[in-house]
Amino acid sequence: MSKQTELIQHIPRLRRYARALAGDAARADDLVQDTLERALVKLDLWRPGSDLRAWLFTLMHNLFVNQIRAGGPVHCELDEAADVPVRGGQSDALAVRDIHAALAQLPSEQRAVILLVGLEQFSYAEAARVLGLPIGTVMSRLSRARERLREIMEGRAVVKLQVVK
Predict the structure, then answer these.
(1) Distance between CA atoms of 135 and 14, rounded to whole angstroms?
(2) More confidently predicted of 97 and 42
(3) What's the CA gap between 50 and 31, in Å, rounded?
(4) What is the model's pLDDT at position 93?
(5) Which CATH number covers residue 48?
(6) How many domains does the chain have?
(7) How far is 140 from 17, CA to CA, in rounded Å?
(8) Whole domain around residue 5: which residue ranges?
């Protein structure tokens, strides 16, 4: 199987992760396109036999962080929940919307970890490699993210107001 064919097989997962990170379809599509462009240019740097999925997610994460630094805060739209496959019930759609809204409230560092481990089923070690963090940092961010999601979903989240002088 060629490198390009292997790369194409990961596009659906890249797109799902990008949409969860970026918060809207247009920014996610741009992020996937930028990731694929960088991957094709740097494909010779990928070592056959290593984890292509982790390498692609690392490229995407680094691009996303660079875009945040260059362009300011991330914008999340709640309309994106409509694209998530769910059972037919209205209560399921509302639950997906609530989870999406709760994820949007997490800091980007926690959201990235919970999406890699929870949604994309990366191991802690794989997530640590993708994010360029020690495994202990991944585990603590994941723990804080899960607790924060529980608080938000149960309505116990405390809104922190910024004092402006």
Answers:
(1) 22
(2) 42
(3) 23
(4) 66
(5) 1.10.1740.10
(6) 1
(7) 21
(8) 1-75
